[in-house]
């Protein structure tokens, strides 16, 4: 995630599967990777550096920041600003001092003990209190180094994002976004999600996806998911199924408009390949990937969905139509047939963001 935020934070065009510039190659998925690629974390091969491969996330972020200081002749976000570079580095280093030592996991890191049970609640609370205090060191803004989004935020966000989605499932009354207990951490989450468009619209994972990881054997829990964890997950899922308010919808669209318009760059670099709203972008992704989705549905043999490709294709087009016209209040959208509802439920279950 850190390397992806580094590129997007610099407002470089991001392509699915591979991202290729004249000076570097970065591979972010396990599909179609070259022979030199080894492992699942982002790696970059810099052709102008003897073909050496770089893979540690924050090393990548720093190198990206060094190489891409301008776009279209204009300065872009400096993730290591000169006047606060020492503070940025210190805040990055504080992560290892604050987060707990526990069972390693690629998607459920810093959550489980070596016996497969969640870390004790008081240990999590200590981590959150220390993080809140670290953010309080800067009274000039909500980010780790004040009013500016920097590499320090990039270093912390993958893990704090996961904590926001996962900790409420592990212990009662454990919420990193609690404004009363962790006011500075609350403000940081709010700033990241509402004032950094590239994070909120392109990088940020959703809580339901991070919760799914808690039930997967091999991702920290040793395959033994405590019943209380499952119960809490079910309760949180019910709460999240409530429709968002008109004000929340409006704020989401404002953030999306900022992302699409690439406000930090010249108008000529507007993201013309992105749809005009989140729901239309979802419809676009659905249609572009319909063949693979159909194969997935057929392989899962869901009784609630047909197994013929033509029927499934028609259902997906109906769902895409609804997503494209989500603002309309007409019978076509209110009267959703059972198959379309079943497809939406299937996609919600199968989808992970990030995957």
Description:
With 355 residues, the chain is mainly α. It has 3 domains: 2-75, no CATH class; 82-242, Glutathione S-transferase Yfyf (Class Pi), Chain A, domain 2 (Up-down Bundle), CATH 1.20.1050; 275-350, no CATH class. It is 51% helix and 4% strand. The protein has helices spanning 2-9, 57-67, 85-98, 121-136, 151-170, 183-195, 197-203, 207-213, 227-240, 246-261, 278-288, 290-300, 309-324, 331-334, 338-350, and strands at 18-20, 25-27, 43-45, 53-54, 70-71, 74-75. The longest helix is centred in the middle third of the chain and has 20 residues, at 151-170. It comes from Fragilariopsis cylindrus CCMP1102. Residues 82-216 form the GST C-terminal domain. This is GST C-terminal domain-containing protein. One of its GO terms (cellular component) is cytoplasm.
In the CATH hierarchy, what is the class of the largest domain? Mainly Alpha
Largest sheet, spatial ordering of strands: 1-2-3-4
Query: Termini separation (Å)?
Result: 11 Å
Task: List the total number of helices.
Answer: 15
> Might you state the CATH topology name of the largest domain?
Glutathione S-transferase Yfyf (Class Pi), Chain A, domain 2
Give the low-pLDDT segments: 11-31
Would you list the SSEs in sequence order as H and E? Answer: HEEEEHEEHHHHHHHHHHHHH
Tell me, briefly, the overall form.
Answer: globular
Helix content estimate: 40-55%
CATH architecture of the largest domain: Up-down Bundle
């Amino acid at each position: 995630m850190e390397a992806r935020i580094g590129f997007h934070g610099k407002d470089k065009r991001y392509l699915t599967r591979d991202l290729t510039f004249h000076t570097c190659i970065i591979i972010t998925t396990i599909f179609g990777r070259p022979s030199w690629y080894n492992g699942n974390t982002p790696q970059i091969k810099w052709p102008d550096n003897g073909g050496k491969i770089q893979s540690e996330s924050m090393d990548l972020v720093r190198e990206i920041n060094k190489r891409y200081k301008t776009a279209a002749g204009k300065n872009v976000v400096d993730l290591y600003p000169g006047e606060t570079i020492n503070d940025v580095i210190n805040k990055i280093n504080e992560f290892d001092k604050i987060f707990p030592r526990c069972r390693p996991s690629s998607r459920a890191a810093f959550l489980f003990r070596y016996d497969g049970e969640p870390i004790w609640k008081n240990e999590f609370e200590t981590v959150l209190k220390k993080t809140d205090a670290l953010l309080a060191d800067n009274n000039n803004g909500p980010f780790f180094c004040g009013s500016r989004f920097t590499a320090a935020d990039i270093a912390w966000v993958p893990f704090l994002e996961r904590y926001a989605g996962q900790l409420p499932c592990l212990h009662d009354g454990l919420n990193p976004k609690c404004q009363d207990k962790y006011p500075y951490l609350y403000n940081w989450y709010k700033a990241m999600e509402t004032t950094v468009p590239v994070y909120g619209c392109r990088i940020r994972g959703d809580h339901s996806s991070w919760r799914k990881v808690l039930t997967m054997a091999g991702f920290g829990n040793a395959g033994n998911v405590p019943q209380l964890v499952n119960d809490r997950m079910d309760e949180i899922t019910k709460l999240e199924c409530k429709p968002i308010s008109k004000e929340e919808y409006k704020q989401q669209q404002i953030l999306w408009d900022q992302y699409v318009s690439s406000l930090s760059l010249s108008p000529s670099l507007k993201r013309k390949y992105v749809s005009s709203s989140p729901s239309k972008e979802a419809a676009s992704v659905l249609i572009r990937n319909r063949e693979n989705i159909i194969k997935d549905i057929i392989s899962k043999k869901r009784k609630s969905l047909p197994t013929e490709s033509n029927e499934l294709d028609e259902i997906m087009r109906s769902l895409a139509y609804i997503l494209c016209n989500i603002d309309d209040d007409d019978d076509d959208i209110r009267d959703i047939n059972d198959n379309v509802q079943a497809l939406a439920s299937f996609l919600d279950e199968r989808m992970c963001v990030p995957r």
